[in-house]
Amino acid sequence: MLSKRSLLAGAGAVGATLALLLSGCSDVGTEAAEHDHGTHEHEPTSQPADGATAHNDGDATFARDMIPHHEQAIVMSDIVLAKQGIDPRVTELAEQIKAAQGPEIATMTQWLTQWGAAQASGHEGHDMGGDHAAMGMMTDEHLEQLRRAQGADASKQFLTGMIAHHEGA
Asked: The whole model's pTM is what?
């Protein structure tokens, strides 16, 4: 099972990767350095001997907040993956984000179920305002701009949006 610390570390690693990729997007004449973006190993979460997972209200709030956050990262990735002319490094990153965050959503949903806690609301990438805006969530307007963008502009908007998205996590 993933711990909050592992999820936050993963978000930080994605943010650092995005920053490196974004810096390479504007320099067309220079090849970017090779980076290993392999999967991150997550340390197991310890559980009490009776098999029940120790948790508190903060854990449930964290999971409920992170589920729509991860869902929007997948929406953003789907938008850029549906486009032509996107830098292959950007499409590779979008694929990695989808591959990592889908299972994390399932894990956090399972936590909430095991804890008998309320599930996250299923806004899936929609403008959520309030606390979610402070978490780096894109507004509906920004998502629409990403949908309309093409080529290098779409790559840049995706990377810029994803950096803000993960800095807010």
From this structure: 0.67
Residues in the chain: 169
Contact 144, 126 (CB under 8 A): no
Q: Distance between CA atoms of 143 and 93, rounded to whole angstroms?
A: 18
* Strand blocks (E) in 33-91: none
Question: Do residues 90 and 32 make contact, with C-beta atoms less than 8 angstroms apart?
Answer: no
What is the C-alpha R_g of the chain?
17
Extract the tokens encoding 63: 């999971």
Question: Please, what is the Cα angle at 35 between 32 and 36, to 5 degrees?
Answer: 160
The burial of 2, by beta-carbon neighbours within 10 Å (0-12 exposed, 13-18 middle, 19 or more buried), is given as middle
Domain-wise residue ranges, the chain: 1-25+70-116+123-169
Does domain 1-25+70-116+123-169 correspond to CATH entry 1.20.1260.10?
yes
Tens-digit pLDDT profile for residues 52-73: 568 899 999 999 999 999 999 9
Asked whether the beta carbons of 136 and 169 are under 8 A apart, the reply is yes
Q: Which tokens is 147 given?
A: 């949908």
DSSP code for 44: P
